[in-house]
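ok so I'm stuck.
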Amino acid sequence: MRWDRAFGVGIGLNLAFVLIEAFYGWQAGSLALLADAGHNLSDVAGLVVAWGALLAGRLAPTPTRTYGWLSASILAALANALILLVAMGALALEAIQRLQSPEPVSGGTVIAVAAIGVLVNGITAFLFMAGSRDDLNLRGAFLHMAGDALVSLGVVVAGVLYLHFGWVWLDPLVSLAIALIIVAATWGLLRQSLHLTFHGVPAHVDLAAVHAWLKALPGVSEVHDLHVWALGTADVALTAHLVMPAGHPGDAFLGEVAATLAERFHVQHPTLQIEIDGLEDGCQKPAGLE
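replied:
not stuck anymore, here's the structure
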């Protein structure tokens, strides 16, 4: 499958680059290269986690896991965000320590190796770019690779400036600046994955619009017990009670509603209960829905 190839290529390229970068970073005495190698290694782990979640999501449902392992992708996105934040925290700490006692580096080696990193990480990020728009798990993989490309580009710039001006403090300073940028970019991934972990309404679903549309359906006098949550990073479920005093509208009506929910609101797993008089089951209505 498409994403299997993307993960396989991405993991292979980045693992090979980690070994190259770590070796030459040690040879050149560059914190930026060594830190980037460590970050790349964490991203390899992140790609493995994301791929594992993708594979787990394909497992068939069982009597004890009726939705299968779809939520593995949400946990993988959360894990990727945490891995990135920990890696960037370690990078920032090391950069601050190095700023206090900067050391000379081999600028030419730094530039050459980091330029390879821009290419490797840029290619890998491109593989996940399309999927990152709709799947939080793939977005985590994309952010890892795009962040790596940014780090490597910063290292190239630092190497060029070091060769021209001899600023030994520039290498750790660039590392610190990039770490802060990536933390800011990762915060949204962490917030969204935590939101979905606690069954929050996915960001692309307007709950008020869904409620209004359901209530406007022919024959519907009231909508209650409306719940929307993510089964996985690309799968959304919905349950709702529709009060229809004129009686059950038939299967064709339910089929049309399900098709529109999928097309308009990207809800793949709707469950609708038709009621004639309405049932009071004590379930509170979300604030703002009338």
